[in-house]
């Protein structure tokens, strides 16, 4: 499950209750607003997720925060509440990946919307459920909305409401947000971009490149709607134009609403829409993607290069073996007769220090050199730079020269440097060779960095080492900035997300049969990808049960499939199944479908029994237990 600091959780809850804005049926602002259940159903998954996250807080924190929220929505606005709202605004403004300039006044406005639009009975029910720690039903129905109050609010804030109704509910952009919100980026001028793999494109660039345009239209077709890329480009242009016409305060409010959808802010590095950036999105483009429309100036000093023959494996390594790239045969499939060349450049000390000064924080430290990787295709004297691949390229970096007595080598990883932000890209330590290895699906600027993160509630916990290890690999976060809640439960969707982060695979776009996994859910990309690469199955033909707590036998099955995906041996004979299960008294409790998985989990030391004589296959897993399994899998890669 995606974890946030306390203030972000509160913000998510407040924002989720204001997301009804885009779906209101408003004919005239002075008239009463009509809201249908279909419109609320778009918003309800956000509300349920936010409330569930809020309810999962440790009781002492939950009790304190709920009381503050009660005071606010009941009209008792205290200095404490003011400080709380300001801390939320400060937290949101400090998020590197979004960098929204949201003021406390904007947050008060959003909180006021929650206070005003939701009937008092429904507000009380939601807060009671959060306070109890058990969410039964927080979904909104039309009767839960105070339409008179909403109409009055519309009158007072018509610019933003009109904008959202006119430009988000135009169908095409609404569909784009619903289906692609994790892939969308918005720049400071509200221009719309789309992330494919490790590359961010402007919609203009996609529409001008026939290969990309065909791909985008295929993706839209696969989603079962009648949209085309041209429809989306038209809607996005209207969106951008209207947004630029808003006042500064209302632009900030709009950014806050967009953030609630998961849409990230984006700053092009050179003013063009085709840059390496963003996070794992819809997967790499078939045949590899290129930056032929962008002028690329190679920087740094060349330390290694080699021509690439797509029919063979290629190794590119520096003379001192400080860095090596292993390029598989068929790394791209769209070769048109171009000469292909991969180069490794290293930035000088001044350039590296500039980057270090920007990305180093209390728990993150840049170590060693900063590298630029280039994959260039040359034909008829014209250079094209390939930015994403069909198969991953393996990079290995030596830790020679890095003080591994000061920096635990298991917590050193490769990071991509994008717009002064460090983005984790994996890294497994090999003690024998003293190297870090990971796989890349795209090229950009990279450096080794040390990430050391701990939590105040694991200081004496048996899983402390595993939790810190996986936190350093950005596979797990705390439920707040300094608490992990090791004994909390883990859902099926959360464990699937752990596995996708572990394997560091690009998100897949092919739909799943699961009707309970929707594009607005935080776990949509993780579950969809896990299903498409064979890591997860449903509890029925069309249900995944993402929010059910995962059982130990389900976790064993998913973990074993992850091991298979790594290419590791997971074979087990029927005699071995009998032998490994026989050591547990509760073997009869193992479901028939799970017997091989449970036995194999023991054979390959992925999971052990809860005791020496019990496996507890139907028990649910704690966060600490799940991370211990993920830690073992990580070391098996």
UniProtKB/TrEMBL annotation:
Q: Where is the composition biased (Gly residues)?
A: 274-290
Region spans: Disordered: 268-294
Q: Which InterPro entries would you find in this protein's record?
A: Cell_Envelope_Struct_Comp, SLH_dom
Q: Where is the SLH domain?
A: 450-508, 510-573, 581-637
Which superkingdom does the taxonomy of this entry point to? Answer: Bacteria
Give the record's keywords alphabetically. Answer: Repeat
Give the PROSITE patterns listed for this entry: SLH
One Pfam family named in its UniProt record: SLH
Descriptive protein name: S-layer domain-containing protein
Naturally occurring in which organism (per UniProt): Thermoanaerobacterium xylanolyticum (strain ATCC 49914 / DSM 7097 / LX-11)
Tell me the organism's taxonomic lineage. Answer: Bacteria, Bacillati, Bacillota, Clostridia, Thermoanaerobacterales
């Amino acid at each position: 499950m995606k974890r946030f600091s306390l203030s972000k959780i509160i913000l998510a809850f407040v924002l989720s209750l204001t997301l009804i804005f885009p779906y209101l049926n408003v004919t005239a602002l002075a008239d009463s607003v009509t809201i249908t259940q279909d419109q609320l159903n778009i918003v309800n998954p956000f509300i349920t997720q936010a409330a569930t996250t809020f309810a999962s807080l440790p009781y002492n924190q939950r009790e304190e925060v709920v009381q503050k929220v009660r005071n606010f929505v009941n009209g008792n606005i205290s200095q404490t509440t003011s400080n709380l709202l300001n801390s939320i605004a400060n937290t949101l403004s400090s998020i590197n990946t979004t960098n929204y300039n949201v003021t406390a006044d904007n947050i008060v406005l959003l909180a006021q919307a929650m206070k005003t639009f939701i009937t008092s009975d429904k507000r009380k029910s939601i807060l009671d459920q959060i306070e109890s720690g058990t969410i039964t039903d927080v979904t909104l129905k039309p009767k839960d909305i105070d339409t008179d109050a909403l109409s009055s609010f519309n009158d007072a804030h018509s610019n933003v409401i009109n904008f959202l109704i006119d430009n988000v509910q135009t169908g095409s952009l609404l569909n784009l947000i619903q289906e692609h919100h994790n892939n969308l980026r918005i720049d400071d001028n509200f221009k719309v971009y789309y992330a494919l793999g490790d590359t961010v494109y402007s919609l203009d660039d996609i529409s001008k490149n026939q290969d990309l345009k065909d791909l985008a239209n295929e993706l839209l077709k696969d989603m079962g709607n009648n949209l085309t890329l041209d429809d989306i480009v038209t809607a996005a242009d209207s969106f951008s134009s209207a947004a630029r016409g808003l006042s500064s305060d209302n632009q900030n409010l709009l950014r806050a609403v967009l953030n609630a959808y998961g849409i990230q802010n984006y700053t092009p590095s050179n003013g063009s829409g085709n840059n390496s950036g963003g996070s794992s999105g819809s997967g790499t483009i078939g045949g590899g993607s290129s930056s032929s429309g962008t002028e690329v100036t190679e920087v740094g000093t060349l330390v290694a290069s080699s021509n690439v023959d797509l029919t063979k494996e290629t190794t590119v390594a520096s003379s001192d073996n400080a860095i090596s790239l292993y390029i598989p045969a068929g790394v791209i499939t769209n070769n048109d007769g171009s000469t292909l060349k991969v180069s490794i450049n290293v930035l000088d000390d001044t350039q590296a220090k500039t980057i270090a000064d920007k990305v180093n924080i209390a728990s993150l430290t840049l170590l060693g050199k900063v590298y630029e990787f280039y994959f260039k295709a040359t034909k008829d004297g014209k250079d094209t730079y390939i930015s994403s691949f069909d198969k991953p390229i393996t990079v290995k970096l030596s830790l020679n020269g890095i003080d591994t007595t000061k920096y635990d080598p298991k917590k050193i990883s490769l990071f991509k440097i994008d717009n002064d932000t460090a983005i984790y890209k994996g890294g497994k330590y090999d003690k024998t060779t003293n190297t870090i290895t990971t796989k890349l699906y795209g090229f950009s600027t990279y450096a080794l960095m040390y990430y050391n993160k701990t939590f105040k509630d694991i200081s004496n916990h048996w899983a402390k080492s595993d939790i810190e290890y996986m936190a350093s690999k950005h596979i797990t976060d705390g439920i707040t900035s300094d608490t992990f809640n090791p004994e909390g439960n883990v859902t099926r969707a959360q464990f699937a997300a752990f596995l996708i982060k572990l394997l560091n695979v690009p998100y897949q776009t092919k739909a799943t049969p699961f009707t309970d996994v929707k594009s607005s859910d935080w776990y949509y990309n993780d579950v969809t990808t896990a299903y498409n690469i064979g890591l997860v199955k449903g509890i029925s033909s069309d249900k995944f049960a993402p929010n059910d707590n995962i059982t130990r036998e389900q976790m064993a099955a998913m973990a074993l499939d992850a091991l298979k995906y790594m290419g590791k041996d997971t074979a087990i004979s029927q005699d071995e199944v009998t032998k490994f299960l026989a050591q547990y008294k509760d073997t009869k409790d193992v479901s028939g479908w799970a017997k091989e998985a449970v036995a194999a989990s023991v054979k390959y030391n992925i999971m052990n029994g809860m005791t020496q004589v019990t496996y507890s296959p139907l028990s649910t897993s704690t966060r600490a237990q799940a991370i211990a399994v993920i830690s073992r899998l990580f070391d098996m890669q």
